Amino acid sequence: MKLYNSLGPNPRLVRIFLAEKGIELPTEEIDIMAGANRQPPYIEINPAGQMPALELDDGSVICETAVICEYLEETQPQPPLIGSTPESRADTRMWLRRVENKITLPLTDGFRFAEGLGMFKDRMRVIPHAADDFKALAQDGLGWLDEQIGDREFICGDRLSLPDIFLYSFLDFGTGVGQTLDPKHARLTSWFARVAARPSAEASLHPIAKAGGMRA
After folding, report:
1. Which CATH homologous superfamily contains domain 2-80+206-210?
2. What are the pLDDT digits (tens) for 69-99?
3. Are strands 2-5 and 53-55 parallel, antiparallel or unpaired?
4. Of 3.10.310.30, 3.30.1450.10, 3.30.1360.120, 1.20.1050.10, which CATH number belongs to 86-198?
């Protein structure tokens, strides 16, 4: 297998997933700053032009971060990061949907339509006048999740799972683009520190991000 890799929270969350699984894969870097992900030959690998993508040994390609992680979980079930029972897998997927819909999707659009506008305006339809609203939606979602997480160690209880990896990757990215985690969300602040302390968090940083002081 080979991972098409780049800067950004989506490739990073897959790298965290791989690190937690103890899986090492060869990578091919795609320069998203130069728009290489929207041009041949990458656009022929992933017509959506999104990062990352996982090329399998038979030459087929899996795209979409959650689907890549699902595939990796099925090929290497231990340690379980999605779940080892139907109930735990359903719980993971439920919380992943909530994290994506309430937090990471609006956070991402808030960035694309404001700080990232110069990069994205010629690559996708952008809505600059909606940027602040998307950022506010993400903050609303964080407030909601802060109440929901209660005294749980991780989002799904006492086990690190895919929703934790998704949320951490995007919140760490958000810190560098003006969408920080409000310290008034004390439960999530503690949760963030726990995930950040795991070896996978540091190991997954992109070399370019390290050199530039970024978190992606």
Report:
1. Glutaredoxin (3.40.30.10)
2. 999 999 999 999 999 999 999 999 999 999 9
3. antiparallel
4. 1.20.1050.10
Q: Where are the domains of the chain?
A: 2-80+206-210, 86-198
User: Using one digit for the tens of pLDDT, what is the confidence trace for 114-156?
Assistant: 999 999 999 899 999 999 999 999 999 999 999 999 999 999 9
Decide if 2-80+206-210 and 86-198 have a common fold. Answer: no
Count other Cβ atoms within 10 Å, centred on residue 132: 12
Q: Under a CB-based contact definition with an 8 Å cutoff, are residues 141 and 155 in contact?
A: no
Strands 27-29 and 2-5: parallel
Cβ-count burial of 171 within 10 angstroms (0-12 exposed, 13-18 middle, 19+ buried)? buried
- Alpha-carbon distance of 142 to 123, in angstroms, equals 28
What is the pTM assigned to this prediction? 0.95
pLDDT at 212: 66
Rounded Cα gap, residues 2 and 166, in angstroms: 21
The C-alpha atoms of residue 152 and residue 194 are separated, in whole angstroms, by 12
Q: Read off the pLDDT of residues 30-70 as tens digits, 9 standing for 90 and up.
A: 999 999 999 999 999 999 999 999 999 999 999 999 999 99
